[in-house]
UniProtKB/TrEMBL annotation:
NCBIfam families: rsmG_gidB (TIGR00138). InterPro entries: rRNA_ssu_MeTfrase_G, SAM-dependent_MTases_sf. SUPFAM superfamilies: S-adenosyl-L-methionine-dependent methyltransferases. It comes from Bilifractor porci. Its EC number is 2.1.1.-. Specifically methylates the N7 position of a guanine in 16S rRNA. The keyword rRNA processing applies. Pfam families: GidB. CDD domains: AdoMet_MTases. This is Ribosomal RNA small subunit methyltransferase G.
Length: 245
C-alpha cells in the first residue's frame, strides 16, 4: 500500500523545491526519504539525533537543506564525497538517496550514531554509502581518505577556521569543500582567510541558498582546494577548536 504521506501538501511542496535544485525524485526515492525519516525518529527516542521532529520541518530543514548542494554542483556525474561530522546523516544520506551514482563516506566520531547510519544504509539499500567511526583529525591522516575526495561537506556547528582544518585535508587538489553555514558567514570567511590559505584552500564563492527575506537562513561556503594541505594538519584532537589557525 502506498504511503499516504507521499500525497500530502508538505511532501508535494518538498518535491517542488527539490526540482528547483535540479532534482527529480522517483517514487522509490521518495519512499526512501520517508523510511529514513521514520528510522531517524525511531532511533531518536534512544539516542540524541535531532531536535527537529515535525514532518514539515524535517523535509525542509534537514532534507532540502542537505540537497541544496545540487543547486551549485553537477552531482549527476560520479563523484566521491566525504561528509565530515555527519551526525544523523546530513547532508550525506539525502544526497546518497537522490544521487545513487555518488560514492559517499559518512564520518562521525560516535559509535552509536554510526550504528544508526549503518541501519539506514542497510534498510534503504544504499550501496553507495559507507559509515565510518572516526574523529575528523584521525581520518584525515589515513592515506585511504587524505586528499581523495572530489567534494567534502560538513553541516557541523564549528566555526569556519577549525572546520576547514578538519575538512580540507580530505579534498583532493581541484576538489572543493562546502561548509553549510547560516549567519555571519562573511565575517567568518574574513576571519578564516589566513587559515584557509595555510590549509591549501581558496574561497571560491559564498552562496545564499534562499532569498534574504526567507525565514530559512542557509549559505554554502565553497572553498576550492588549490594545493596540498601541509602534513602537520590537522593537528591533534581538540587543538583546531582550542587554538584556531
Amino acid at each position: 500500500m502506498s504511503d499516504t504521506r507521499l500525497k500530502s501538501p508538505e511532501f508535494v511542496s518538498f518535491l517542488h523545491e527539490a526540482e528547483s535544485f535540479h532534482i527529480s525524485l522517483t517514487e522509490e526515492q521518495q519512499v526512501k526519504f520517508l523510511h529514513y525519516m521514520d528510522l531517524m525518529l525511531e532511533w531518536n527516542q534512544k539516542i540524541n539525533l535531532t531536535a527537529i521532529t515535525d514532518f514539515h520541518d524535517i523535509l525542509t530543514l534537514h532534507f532540502l537543506d542537505s540537497l541544496a548542494l545540487a543547486k551549485y554542483e553537477n552531482l549527476s556525474q560520479k563523484s566521491k564525497i566525504a561528509d565530515i561530522g555527519t551526525g544523523a546523516g546530513f547532508p550525506g544520506i539525502p544526497l546518497a538517496i537522490a544521487f545513487p551514482e555518488l560514492q559517499i563516506l559518512l564520518l562521525d566520531s560516535l559509535n552509536k550514531r554510526v550504528n544508526f547510519l549503518n541501519e539506514v544504509i542497510n534498510r534503504l539499500g544504499l550501496q553507495n554509502c559507507t559509515a565510518v567511526q572516526s574523529r575528523a583529525e584521525d581520518g584525515a591522516r589515513q592515506t585511504t581518505y587524505r586528499e581523495k575526495f572530489d567534494l567534502v561537506t560538513s553541516r557541523a556547528v564549528a566555526s569556519l577556521s577549525p572546520l576547514c582544518e578538519y575538512c580540507l585535508p580530505y579534498a583532493k587538489i581541484g576538489g572543493k569543500f562546502y561548509a553549510y553555514k547560516s549567519l555571519k558567514t562573511e565575517e567568518e570567511c574574513s576571519n578564516s582567510s589566513a587559515a584557509i590559505q595555510i590549509l591549501g584552500g581558496k574561497i571560491q564563492h559564498i552562496y545564499s541558498v534562499y532569498p534574504q527575506d526567507s525565514e530559512r537562513k542557509r549559505t554554502l561556503v565553497c572553498i576550492e582546494k588549490i594545493k596540498p594541505t601541509p602534513n602537520k594538519y590537522p593537528r591533534k584532537a581538540g587543538t583546531p577548536v582550542k587554538k584556531p589557525l
